[in-house]
Amino acid sequence: MVHPSLTNKETTEDKFSKIKPLYNPNEAVIEASRCLFCHDAPCITACPTSIDIPMFIRQIMTKNTKGAAKTIFTQNILGKSCGDVCPTSVLCEGACVYHHLNEKPIEIGRLQAYATNDAIENNIKFFEKGETTNKKVAVIGGGPAGLACAHELTVLGHAVTVFDANEKAGGLNTYGVAPYKFSNKDSEKEVKYISNIGFEIKTSTKVITEGKSTDNKVLLSDLEKNYDAIFIGTGLGKTKSTGITGENLKGVYGATEFIYDLRKKEQRIDPGKSVVIIGGGNTGIDAAVESALLGAEVTMVYRRSENELNAYDFEVQHAREKGVKFLFLSSPVEIVGKDKVEGIKFIKNTIERTKSNTKSKPEIKPVTGTEFIINCDRVIIATGQEKQVNFLNGIQNLKLEAGKIVINKDFQTSNAKYFAGGDCINGGKEVVNAAADGRDAARGIHKFLMKGK
Amino acid sequence: MADLTTNFAGIKSPNPFWLASGPPTNTGYQVMNAFRAGWGGAVWKTLGVPIANVSSRYGAVSYKNNRIMGFNNIELITDRSLEVNIREMKEVKEKFPNHAVIASLMFETKEEWHDCIKKCEDVGVDGFELNFGCPHGMCERGMGSAVGQNPDVCEKITSWVMEKATKPVIVKLTPNITDITKAALAAQRGGANAVSLINTINSVTGIDLDRMEPRPIVDGLSTHGGYCGPAVKPIALNMVSEISNHPDFKLPISGIGGIETWQDAAEFILMGATSLQICTAVMHYGFKIVIELKEGLSNYLDSKEVKSITELSGKAARKVKKWEQLDLNYKVIAKINSDKCIGCQLCYIACEDGAHQSIAINPDSRIPIILKDKCVGCNLCSLVCPVEECITMTKIETGKGKLFWADHPANPINQKATASR
Ligand SMILES: Cc1cc2nc3c(=O)[nH]c(=O)nc-3n(C[C@H](O)[C@H](O)[C@H](O)COP(=O)(O)OP(=O)(O)OC[C@H]3O[C@@H](n4cnc5c(N)ncnc54)[C@H](O)[C@@H]3O)c2cc1C
Ligand SMILES: Cc1cc2nc3c(=O)[nH]c(=O)nc-3n(C[C@H](O)[C@H](O)[C@H](O)COP(=O)(O)O)c2cc1C
Ligand code: SF4
Ligand code: SF4
Ligand code: SF4
């Protein structure tokens, strides 16, 4: 394709086009040739799935793109989505030695996406179903953790069925991450590529702890009867409530639910006119950018100062570039409106940094008499996701800590038959962590099932 | 500002940078553009007996994403008529009387040589270069490198030329020879006023792996070509120094082979050249590079407080010695500047797997540790280190006097001497 800058033609810009566009072969080789091929490379250590980065980059450089894809998938079968969505500047690229030369780090994520894209587009298979062990494993949740686990289990010879409540598998890759990183089509292709090895995915099938199995529900106790081991990769739940009045008004959304809707309808949603986002994390930023891209006026309000934002710097910067305004040191008091949102009342805060809490976030103190109202027609609450405590409590002897499933080094839970990984054990990290957990949990399950064999 | 004007064996030019004989000097149009851009001289594309060219003609070697590390061609001498070339030379000389126009020639018979020399002198060329170097196409017909490789033929043809020529004559040498000094001395015996080197090196640049055909591909086939460009510089530098160091060799040397930057030019001068010729770099980047070449070289001369190229010439060549003249007691070891180190550990793995296991991983940081007692001072780590001047080789005082191979205990001669005692 001719680069747009080389032609005089006007191009209609797709607002949700990739922020990390796919390299063409020439770009990939040029970028790959910059890599120094470090010994015991720090980028590998920084990758949660320990991909042999210098090796796959060298393979791209020598135009052995297929070999590069194999190197990546051997460690991380979600290598494509990771290349597209990983916050690389705090992971692999953040560790690249080029930083010490004050030079741009190698664009590892984009190179990874380039190599894996080739394999997915051409359906190049690197792994075979292992020799059967006659063991059956149920995987609850078809997100990154569940898919990585199912794939590795299949390689190891176990018969795997994945159950997912959603219409489509992929978890938050399909219903959560920003579409300008990973589109619905990308996710669909990835799921298909991974499951091609030969495991079943039952979508629109929710696993329940009470009641009885139906067409779109399956009772946990039935799974226990029919499977030798169970992997829990259920992620997190709904957006946490803030408990302020007015949360039930029309026009108030939870960030996760708003994004779920956006992804499901492939961005064909009404974004509202003026939107206030409450929160300071990456999910809030995503909701803010998505609303802004769709044409809304967006203000993101955070109760502490910019220093304490949970969101990554590069995400905040991206949001500012897209026109999102930020307001700090303000807590929501009440959402106002008759039957739909008309505005939201805040109170100003001061923050106190005491010596004792240098590590944790500083305390906030509301300043009386500083209330003010921002008029808006939509409020998106982005104050974090709940844990799936109700569901998890329905599993016998499953130990939780702050709503997170407790596991041992084999990713086995306190109930020996159950293993777990992903957001449900770490409280919400990245796709790449879920991919690492899923893979390693599969190895734990294998060890458990093959004991004495 | 240092003086760049050049008088090379009587050929005068505003600066030492000449276009080497090749595609950039195909036409008067190009040579005039080159002079306007700042080039000091041009060695015209070789004139000679009629030929025809194939297509394609060029091949190249890339290193990672760097294009044309090395270049190769299977082109012959000019494919335009002698009349057209002579007429254009005349036009150039009329417009640029102070720039050097050198006619490169390659003929078979004495009459042909004499005839062309006369024609060229009549239009005012400043000198001649005898192409005894082209490694393909012409040598099969007893010309080009077939002459350069045979010192007697080289001497004979040079002497034919000297009978007729009144302008300075440069003999261009081929590197496709075991001992370049033999050819240089033959040219001197034949009466030449100078030599230039190197012409291109026999080569096959690569193979199309899909078609399994060597490059450049001519209807599925290929032939060996002449290699030039940055990759050949080390070979050329060595050959220039060999000639310039030869006690019997007295003529000026025009340095050619892989010159692209002022540093390359300075290196050739330090090895004994007093004029410089460039072909591939111009084919890659065009005439404009001469601006940087001149300015860079001039600044270098100034920084070294050297007033002219002649003053600089040969300073490094004198330091090229035989291996047995090197001091075996001189010792350097590697030293890492931890402020510069970026922790890539390339030095570690290079020394560990490819050299002398003299670098250790540091348990506390990514900055490796040089094992002073094991380092043999080979340089490898400093060469692989991606950071400029991060690993330096530092001199170690051994407290021992100089020791040469002749006196070294490991030398079998000395062992025999000890045994017989
Ligand atoms: C808005 C948003 C943006 C994000 N952006 C990024 C990003 O840019 N980069 C990045 O690396 N990470 C990002 N993340 C985090 C990342 O998406 C998660 O860390 C990752 O998806 C976790 O994978 P998982 O498999 O543990 O859970 P999930 O992806 O949440 O998958 C869980 C799956 O389990 C299914 N499930 C749950 N309960 C049941 C049940 N009872 N029965 C059947 N199925 C069930 C769900 O339907 C879902 O498909 C983002 C998260 C959010 C919320
Ligand atoms: C395409 C091409 C054609 C050449 N033709 C001639 C020629 O006709 N006569 C000649 O003496 N040298 C010829 N040469 C050799 C160059 O003059 C020069 O000696 C050689 O290329 C090394 O210099 P460089 O590395 O700067 O190119 C040619 C080189 C190239 C690349
Ligand atoms: S998976 Fe993510 S962190 Fe690991 S190398 Fe790839 S892009 Fe980097
Ligand atoms: S740290 Fe950077 S340069 Fe080194 S291997 Fe990794 S990507 Fe390449
Ligand atoms: S090669 Fe240079 S930069 Fe890399 S670890 Fe060694 S000293 Fe440091």
Walk me through this protein's architecture:
The complex is a heterodimer of chains A (453) and B (421). With 453 residues, chain A is α/β, with parallel strands linked by helices. Chain A has three domains: 17-121, Orthogonal Bundle (Fumarate Reductase Iron-sulfur Protein, Chain B, domain 2), CATH 1.10.1060; 136-237 and 387-449, FAD/NAD(P)-binding domain (3-Layer(bba) Sandwich), CATH 3.50.50.60; 252-381, 3-Layer(bba) Sandwich (FAD/NAD(P)-binding domain), CATH 3.50.50.60. Chain A has helices spanning 25-32, 42-46, 53-61, 65-75, 79-85, 92-95, 108-121, 144-155, 172-175, 184-195, 220-226, 255-264, 282-293, 313-321, 389-393, 423-426, 431-449, and strands spanning 136-140, 159-163, 200-202, 206-208, 217-219, 229-232, 252-254, 274-278, 297-301, 325-327, 330-336, 343-352, 363-366, 372-375, 378-381, 400-401, 404-405, 418-420. In chain A, the strands form five sheets. A five-stranded parallel β-sheet of chain A has the order 3-2-1-6-18, with helices on both faces. In chain A, strands 7-15-8-9-10 form a five-stranded parallel β-sheet. In chain A, strands 11, 12, 13 and 14 form a four-stranded antiparallel β-sheet that branches. The radius of gyration of chain A is 23 Å and the shape is globular. The model of chain A has no long low-confidence stretch (mean pLDDT 95). With 421 residues, chain B is an alpha/beta fold. Chain B folds into two domains: 6-319, Aldolase class I (TIM Barrel, Alpha-Beta Barrel); 326-395, Alpha-Beta Plaits, CATH 3.30.70. In chain B, 32% of the residues lie in helices and 20% in strands. Chain B contains 14 helices and 21 strands. Chain B has helices spanning 28-37, 82-95, 110-122, 145-148, 151-164, 180-189, 233-245, 262-270, 280-285, 289-303, 309-312, 346-354, 380-384, 412-420, and strands spanning 6-8, 11-13, 17-19, 41-43, 47-48, 58-63, 66-73, 100-106, 127-131, 169-172, 194-197, 201-203, 207-208, 213-214, 225-228, 253-256, 273-278, 331-336, 359-360, 369-370, 391-396. In chain B, the strands form six sheets. An eight-stranded parallel beta barrel of chain B has the order 3-4-8-9-10-11-16-17, surrounded by eight helices. In chain B, strands 6-7-15-12 form a four-stranded antiparallel β-sheet, with no helix packed on it. Chain B is globular. Chain A binds chain B through residues 29-30, 33, 36-42, 61, 97-98, 100-101, and chain B through 64-65, 341-346, 348-349, 361, 366, 386-387. Flavin mononucleotide binds at residues 20-23, 45-46, 71, 73, 75, 77, 104, 131, 133-134, 172, 199-200, 228-229, 232, 256-259, 278-281 of chain B.
